[in-house]
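Lesson 9: reading folded outputs for more than one chain in a single document. The general rule is that every protein is listed as its sequence immediately followed by its structure tokens, and records are never interleaved. Here is the first one.
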Amino acid sequence: PMFSRRSFVAGTALAAGNVLVSGAAPLPARRLPLAFLGAGYSHFAGKYQVATESPEFEVIGVCEEDAAVRGTVAKPPRWISFEELVQRSEVVVVESEVRRHAADALRALEAGKHVHVEKPPAETMSGFDALLAAASRQKRLLQVGYMWRFNPGLVALLKAARAGAFGEIFMVRATMNTLAGPAERRLWAGFAGGAMFEQGCHLVDAVVRLLGRPSRVTPFLQQLGRPGDDLADNAVAVLEFPAAMAVISSAPRQPGAGPHRFFEVTGTLGTGRLQPLEPPRLVLDLSEAGAGYPAGHQEIPLPAYRRYGDDFAALAAAIRGGTPLSVPPETERVVQETVLRACGMA
């Protein structure tokens, strides 16, 4: 059925889970004890700040067993042992370096904790399958930290696409570039997928959630290089579906890349383009009215957005209410499989 543009925007805000920006929401009866396992990933500082400011959680500390990594944290938190993490936490956020994501998430799940694991969650399918099996066995939630799952611009774009606003979708294009320094390049070069594994995975996640499992994935991993590393730093993946194609690119060679990051959906009735991704700006261009939108070129108003905030709010709501997360385990598995295929790592 048709619905109004106002109701669409309101629904988008609800879908994006803007719990943290709602001043009217009552405080939870009990804050969930949360601990961080690892502090070596680039998103640690942002997620630590969001968690400590959330009314949903009580952050008991950070378990980082590598003294060298502890020394890189600008504002040292309360450091705790893994034993204290096991004894006191109910929720564990895995923010260790990429190679430790799967092992650390498995440790936390096997200790009976709900887990938010940084992306990419594993470098193999077997590693990720072990996480899914442990979560199922322990009856605990496993949330993967693809950071734009609650971006209101992307939520609105995917919702419009599913509602038929663009007609029959035949093309998705998306780009996420950055300018990486030597240390980042050396870390990313440890994986064959390079930039696609580290950053392009966010875009693969969104494509899979829109179009499902691709029938064929062709990676193009070019190493333009810099002295001292062999990073695949000009990466493209072509995902083929029965009636559509997606082209994803990622390159850590572009200065001022943020405003140029985009996600675009094109179909037989028009196009939706999210650019930049942050702060999100969504423009639709429709040949005819549909999904509550008039025909023509239009910018869509979007609710407030804070990266990571709604991920944690959704996890807390799922723990408290016993409802499934918005991305079910079977979809998480297809995302993981497709990321590896897009990286030439399957």
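And here is the second record, again sequence then tokens.
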Amino acid sequence: MALAVTRASDAAEDLATMAGAAVLGSVTIPGRAEQVRTARRFVAKILGELGTVTETAVLLTSELVTNAVQHSDSRRPGGTVTLLILEIAGRIRIEVTDNGSDHSSPVVKADVFSPDGHGLLLVETMAGHWGYLRDGAGTTVWFQLAA
């Protein structure tokens, strides 16, 4: 189930969870479909060096970056998507931040017969935890995996 941070106390709890987190890597890429490959390579390189959860993390990152490029203002000229990889208490957390959207928010589509829209279903199924935060600057969707 997604954790949508909508109250100040939720945000404070989220920050408290991240206390002591180690930043493993961060990159900002243009909000273009061809850049999803760059995001996958970045995650594979960073996590491959640790020898941990690489395949699942690459797949879920690919889904989140694809969503950001397709459904947010990141797809507009000059738009960007930022990836942040953290290690927190033996878990890997990957955050994908886009330029936000006035028209959509992250939604899990449970219709398995739909031809698309299964990215967040994969995240929900494969990640230990996931959620999102929307603010005036954009939307950050994150997931955690056991390292």
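What the second record shows: DSSP finds four helices and six strands in the chain.
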